[in-house]
Design brief:
binds cytidine-5'-diphosphate, Rossmann fold, alpha/beta, 55% helix
Length: 218
């Protein structure tokens, strides 16, 4: 397969920033797959349908297009919660598979960040990272980000959201959030963005060297 970098991990672990940095470093396009689930959640609600109904949310997922992912409404706290509710449905996940596989299949390779990239979407990815941090540190980061976007929300509420989302994403039976056995763990709790990006670069450089070696012998 092409050189795919899978970046998984829980909410506000730093995976989005790391994926963007890796894309720039290695000259690869980046897909934030969380936006797909956020898009389905927001569009389901806008359509007046029930986000907890697998068929209704699955039907919306089947109509989702790339052009709908730029909407700033997808970046809100409410959209994150809706995303994690629709993400438990098998029909939603199935409807989003093609989009992700097409993106990952680009000839030059790609970076995808999410929850199940290394386990379900691209289990053969030559480079896999699982990015974590403590819930408290993640809540602090997400709280600052939401405040920066103008949302009026308290730290304790954001921490409660994060814990609820971790539990729901980890316990669902459709593609639960879990590190792939061959993923490199990157705990960013004590790291600045620069340090985390640097650690990620080293992991991916090593994976790339192994991948290039395997390409020569096949
Ligand atoms: O930005 P943040 O980490 O808060 O969340 P996100 O990556 O935008 O994902 C929002 C929600 O979508 C997650 O809590 C998951 O429930 C779901 N999701 C998923 O199930 N699979 C993915 N590959 C990406 C996101």
């Amino acid at each position: 397969m092409a050189f795919v970098i899978a970046v998984d991990g829980p909410a506000a672990s730093g995976k989005g920033t790391i994926a963007t940095r890796l894309g720039a470093m290695f000259g690869l396009p980046v897909l934030d797959t969380g936006l797909l689930y956020r898009g389905v959640g927001v569009l389901t609600e806008r359509a007046g349908a029930d986000p907890d109904d697998p068929r209704a949310a699955g039907a919306i997922a089947a109509t989702l297009t790339a052009g709908q992912l730029d909407d700033p409404a997808l970046r809100t706290r409410a959209a994150g919660e809706l995303a994690s509710r629709v993400a438990i449905h098998h029909p939603v996940r199935a409807a989003l598979l093609d989009f992700q596989h097409t993106f990952a299949g680009q000839p030059g390779g790609a970076v995808l960040d999410g929850r199940d990239i290394g386990t379900v979407i691209c289990p053969q990815a030559p480079a896999k990272l699982y990015v974590t941090a403590t819930p408290e540190v993640r809540a602090e980061r997400r709280w600052k980000q939401l405040k920066g976007q103008g949302e009026d929300v308290g730290y304790d509420d954001v921490l409660a959201d994060i814990r609820k989302r971790d539990a729901r994403d980890g316990a669902r039976d459709a593609a639960p959030m879990v590190a792939a056995p061959d993923a490199q763990l990157l705990d960013t709790t004590e790291m600045t963005i620069e340090q985390a990006a640097d650690a990620a670069r080293r992991i991916v450089e090593a994976a790339r060297a192994r991948w290039e070696g395997s390409q020569e012998t096949t």
